[in-house]
Every structure is written in structure tokens, then in C-alpha cells.
Amino acid sequence: MRDHAARTRTGLTAKPTKPPGKVDPRIHVTLPQLRALEGQARGLRFLPRQPAASVFNGRHASRLRGRGLNFEELRDYLPGDDPRTIDWKVTARTGKPHVRVYSEERDRPALILVDQRMSMFFGTQHAMKSVIAAETAALAAFRILDQGDRVGGIVFGDEFGAEIKPKANRPTRDRFLTAIARANQLLRADAPAIGTPMSLNTPLRTAARIARRNHLVIVISDFDGVDEQTASLIGRIASTNDLILCPVTDPIAGEIPAGLKLVVSDGELQVELDTASGEIHKRLADFSSGRLSEILSWQKRYGLPVLPLSAGEDTIPQVRRLTGLTSVGRRPLP
Known about the structure:
6-stranded mixed beta sheet
């Protein structure tokens, strides 16, 4: 391909760095690791009619439209027809009762946004946030395609972008999984510093362009760097689509211990943050809680379902629990 934009859309511009030696599945994912989740995806559901314990149900006043309806025909009213389907304008014009017949849309498109930026390459207990996001995206892709719907996605890192248009076939799904694995394997602690990190607004704008209406859009990210434009894009996508937000956090974000020394690096420079300092501890805590508060405000404003994911436990049990299913899955890795 000579067209750089086309190469970016298909995720061919970046060359992944293969982690040396045996890959730790808690730090990096591989394509076989993602493919192995297919069997575990059965039974998951990312659409309405959730079990009572699912976060998709009324506790947060979340709303999902589900599949849309296609108009099929206008015909005479027959005994047993639902009176709510009567077209009163046509009935008044013709003098005979008519009903509008609809059929449920099939092959509904789903678009999964997967954050693999450097901010996701962090974990203090079980796994990196980037791994949890990658596995959750793979589970969603398997389940959506198994339902007969189209699946595609946008995989984005600070130096990597892949846009896979939704299609109802396995090759498209496999390209999506391959893009996730490539982006994930580019993440490493000694990565050189880059200019301006990728903004979440960039893939959200792409999603808004692709998902004009009646898509299922799932955003799996730590929502680093959100701003007023992010909120506007979230509202724009949610106005015509089903939008699910999956914020990925690390357990340390919930309660930052005092007296903890953190070394933060951009690949070239590094600084040590000592949370024994009351000012530093307060700023870190405010930063963490502020991001969550922003997401919760979108949930309330737009009626969005939110699936909070943690890098402190295995992916499958928490996804099953959040969607109201029995927490059965792989044992946590040591």
C-alpha cells in the first residue's frame, strides 16, 4: 500500500516489538492468547435484556436501544394485530384501518474502541491495564460476531492506529485481534519519549464518523486526557447509538497509600513522587477521583451504562459479574 492513511486505517504502519523471551500474559498479550478467549465469550451479552444483576439494568438509569426496526410494508389491519401499529394518518385518509409492519434489524454493526496508549501500560497487582482492555475487547468481538452482528473496531496507541470497519465475518474479527496484539506489544517501559501523546478525542472523532446511527459502540480506556471536547464527542455518539463505557483502572487509583514512592518516566527523563508529602498525595488522589467523576457525570447526563474494569483481577470473572452472570472463569495468574 502506498497510501499512508489507508495503512493507518488497517494498522500496518507500526512494527511491533516482540517482547524478549517468554511473554508474561499479565504484561503483554499475544494473538494466540486473545484467540483462546473465544470459548469463554459464550454466554456474555452486550445488548439489552440483561440479567437482573447486570449494570446494564435500571440501577443507573442506563438505556440501550438494541437493534433497530426496518419498515417492511403498510397493509390492511387484521384481527389480532397490535393496535399500536395502526397508522392513523393512512387509516383516516383511506377510511380503512392500516398497520405499519416492521422487522427487527439484523447484522447490527458494533464498533469497539481499544486504548493501548502508554498510560495503559501500568499495573500494580494483577495485570497491566492494557492487557485487561485487550482481553475485554476480544471477548466482546467474539460474542458480537457469534450473535450474527458485524464487528469492527478502532485500536489506538500513541504511535499506532488501526481502523477496522465492522463486518460479519471471521477475517475481519481476526484483523481486529491482530491489531490489538500489535498495539499491545509496542508498549514497553523503555519506549523512547514521543512528542504529543494520542488524544482520546482522535479515535472518538473517527468513531463518530463511522457510527452514524444505530451502532453498538464500546469504549475501553483509562480515559486519560479527557476534556470538554471529549464530553461533546461522547454525547454526539450516544445520541444516535448505543454507547457503553468501560473505564479501566488500577486498584492503586482507589486509595493511594501515603508514604509510597513512585518513579515516573517518559522513557528518557524520570522523577520520583513521594506520597508522604501531603500536597503530592492530595494532587494524585484528586487527579484519580476527578477522572472517575467525569465518567460518572457522562453516565448521568446521557444515560450511559458503565462497566468499570480493574487491572487488579482476571478479566473474565469481572466481565461476567458486571453483566450479571456467575463469576466463573480462569483462575488469577500468580
